[in-house]
């Protein structure tokens, strides 16, 4: 690294299942020899995304190093997990040319951006840009409701939904912090629906922030990296929608986040790792996972499962009404599914739907 030149860091944020991991894999494969370090932060007990990227079979994959933060949400573990990881990367003889950080789909990006003001990091790294990945198909279906009336109707109709549902707040905060907004899954929506989604979110993004549409996170590296936003110096424009759990004057106070370990939005979510028995077929797995997704409070299911009579485990990914399952030859069998959802989700129903005897919460 030449003296004085800070290493750019790109933060990839976005709601559960929006396509962050897919976008990052694409970026790493197309990195053109650039040395990129990847830091992943997974909500839940299972570092699934880390293993997905680690297991990237593509010879073009440029991930120099994948570091997984396992102690939970970045904003709660800035001091004991995130900062030491950054320092470790920076102290290497051959530091990375770019750092990519994937936040958990339930984390606010703002506290992470603020952590870049930490003295040992600030002089060496700058936030090149926050890339906010959105699920265009989910938005087109109004799944993350921006329409107040529809939202109220939905809440009124569903006792399980807390009046203070954190999802929309989280979503607005992720939009507000973005230097580039990616409308992913464009293949699943019509051009008209895509324009309508863009129109709806435009008012929530900062001025001059680009909104781009793509499929499978496939964007040129020149669009994703090198935005030179210096986001850490621009917190005033990235205010959290609901910052009420914090003091108001903490924008320049980097101690703040590492002192606060509670009252973040992700407290309103929970995740469980379930050990599942072998499924009869890929279809059986898909059907059961889809049924589990329909249970109260469930937002995302992913993992690997055994299929009777097959050596290769099946990977499964579920977001909203879409479930994908496929055989992953050469991977270790695991038979574990991560279920993520709103606090108070019906784990018993989920377990039963997946063919398990009701399992204790982890
Ligand atoms: N049809 C379609 N599916 C996509 C696209 N991008 C991603 N997916 C699928 O959406 C699912 C979620 O993608 P991920 O990249 O794991 O999403 P993520 O944002 O990392 O999700 P979390 O792990 O919940 O944080 C996977 O099944 C992907 O294959 C896309 O552009 N089109």
Automatic annotation (TrEMBL):
Q: Which UniProt keywords apply?
A: Chaperone, Hydrolase, Nucleotide-binding
For this protein's source organism, the top of the classification is: Bacteria, Pseudomonadati, Pseudomonadota, Alphaproteobacteria, Hyphomicrobiales
UniProt xrefs under InterPro entries? CobW, CobW-likC_sf, CobW-like_C, CobW/HypB/UreG_nucleotide-bd, P-loop_NTPase, Zinc-reg_GTPase_activator
Domain CobW C-terminal: start-end pairs: 270-354
Transmembrane domains' residue ranges:
none
Q: What family is reported?
A: Belongs to the SIMIBI class G3E GTPase family. ZNG1 subfamily.
Biased composition of type Basic and acidic residues is found at 247-269
Q: Does the keyword Ligase apply?
A: no
Where does this protein come from, organism-wise?
Answer: Roseibium aquae
Q: This protein is called what?
A: Cobalamin biosynthesis protein CobW
């Amino acid at each position: 690294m030449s003296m004085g030149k800070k290493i750019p860091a790109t933060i990839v944020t976005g709601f559960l299942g929006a396509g962050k991991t897919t976008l990052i894999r694409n970026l790493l494969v197309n990195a053109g020899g650039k040395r990129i370090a990847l830091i992943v932060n997974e909500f839940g007990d299972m570092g699934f995304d880390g293993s997905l990227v680690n297991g990237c079979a593509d010879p073009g994959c440029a991930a120099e190093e994948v570091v997984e933060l396992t102690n939970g949400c970045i904003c709660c573990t800035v001091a004991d997990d995130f900062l030491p990881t950054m320092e470790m990367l920076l102290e290497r003889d051959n530091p990375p040319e770019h750092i990519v950080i994937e936040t958990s789909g339930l984390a606010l990006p703002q506290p992470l951006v603020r952590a870049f003001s930490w003295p040992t990091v600030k002089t060496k790294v700058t936030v090149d840009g926050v890339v906010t990945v959105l699920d265009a198909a989910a938005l087109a279906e109004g799944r993350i409701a921006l329409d107040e009336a529809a939202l109220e109707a939905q809440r009124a109709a569903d006792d399980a939904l807390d009046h203070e549902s954190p999802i929309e707040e989280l979503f607005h905060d992720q939009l507000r912090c973005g230097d580039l907004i990616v409308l992913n899954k464009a293949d699943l929506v019509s051009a008209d629906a895509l324009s309508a989604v863009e129109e709806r979110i435009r008012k929530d993004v900062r001025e001059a922030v680009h909104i781009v549409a793509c499929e499978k996170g496939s964007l040129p590296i020149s669009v994703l990296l090198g935005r030179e936003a210096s986001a850490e110096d621009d917190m005033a424009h990235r205010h959290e929608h609901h910052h009420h759990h914090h003091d108001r004057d903490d924008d320049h106070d980097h101690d703040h986040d590492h002192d606060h370990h509670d009252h973040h939005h992700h407290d309103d979510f929970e995740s469980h790792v379930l050990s599942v028995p072998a499924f009869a077929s890929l279809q059986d797995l898909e059907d059961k996972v889809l049924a589990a997704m329909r249970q109260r409070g469930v937002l995302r299911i992913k993992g690997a499962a055994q299929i009777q009579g097959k050596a290769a485990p099946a990977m499964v990914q579920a977001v909203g009404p879409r479930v994908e399952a496929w055989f992953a030859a050469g991977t270790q069998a695991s038979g574990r599914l991560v279920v993520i959802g709103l606090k108070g989700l019906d784990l018993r129903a989920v377990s039963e739907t997946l063919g398990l005897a009701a399992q204790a919460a982890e």
